[in-house]
């Protein structure tokens, strides 16, 4: 069972698509990164997942329950931190938590538990009005965790935090699945951030999914190999003549674009180089960053769009 499963979810605002035909599958028990630039549709999607906004089309299942048909059951045990958390500024942090605790009918001990998780300390007794942005984020996260949710939806939780706060929040998020025994769905526009905290990711652009998969698989694709050599240009010429896709990057690095699962090709390239008198001192698979993938995904999308345009012209 998936923590979140959507089929064809679509939301259209006046004259623009916010989310188009989104199929999401979020595995249980891990951190899932929901990536996309500003305006990609992250918040809109999360509001639909929380039943705050009705999709124009498609279906949503939360922990196996259909959100449209069994809303209350589906949203039981779901905690959320959505853009610009609404806190009561004239109350203390503790009093804010107390309000939600009362509404949910939870034991008093819950307050200390969540305050402890976000490490609020004595600041919990101050008025929220006097809080910094980072403290507000922590309080909002504490509130989202009341009642030990099985699923936490966090919309850009590191927004507005200072570098120290960002590091602390990331650490907290990474530990959350173990602490709550559940799933964390976290949105961000920062690729490097998601790379550090999530096991699985989905990349959204203009309301459409352009990439999804496990961070490990996406980043450890062994399609590109760098050879440390003494004469990169000669090496590139040897490999190109043998029908391989290779290029020199400066004098001492040669990059080979191998076919998928191309370790055989790497062995062959090494042999050709050595036989051709090029000294090879190191061979390493090039680890990609999410940033590379993101830009690749965006450029392939552009090609698709321009094809459509051509069709219209034709
Ligand atoms: N209530 C609304 N009415 C009209 N358009 C909206 C509304 N809410 C969002 N949009 C539009 O839908 C698109 C997606 O917005 P959304 O807030 O979901 O993006 P986002 O990925 O959360 O962006 P950000 O990173 O800036 O938070 C945007 O083009 C936005 O202008
Ligand atoms: Mg947003």
Descriptive notes:
Helix content is 39%, strand content 27%. By secondary structure, the chain is α/β, with parallel strands linked by helices. It folds into two domains: 2-218, Rossmann fold (3-Layer(aba) Sandwich), CATH 3.40.50.300; 221-285, Alpha-Beta Plaits, CATH 3.30.70. The chain binds adenosine-5'-triphosphate and magnesium ion.
Number of domains: 2
Distance between the termini: 45 Å
Main sheet makeup: 6 strands, mixed
Structural class: alpha/beta
Number of E-type strands = 15
For this structure, the CATH topology of the largest domain is Rossmann fold
Order of helices and strands: EEEEHEEHEHHHEHEHEEHEHEEHEH
Bound molecules: adenosine-5'-triphosphate, magnesium ion
Number of helices: 11
Provide a quick synopsis of the model.
The chain has 314 residues and is of the alpha/beta class. The protein has helices at residues 42-49, 71-75, 93-104, 109-118, 133-144, 163-180, 191-197, 215-219, 232-241, 263-275, 290-313, and strands at residues 2-13, 16-22, 25-27, 31-35, 57-62, 65-66, 78-81, 151-155, 183-188, 200-205, 208-214, 224-229, 245-249, 253-257, 280-285.
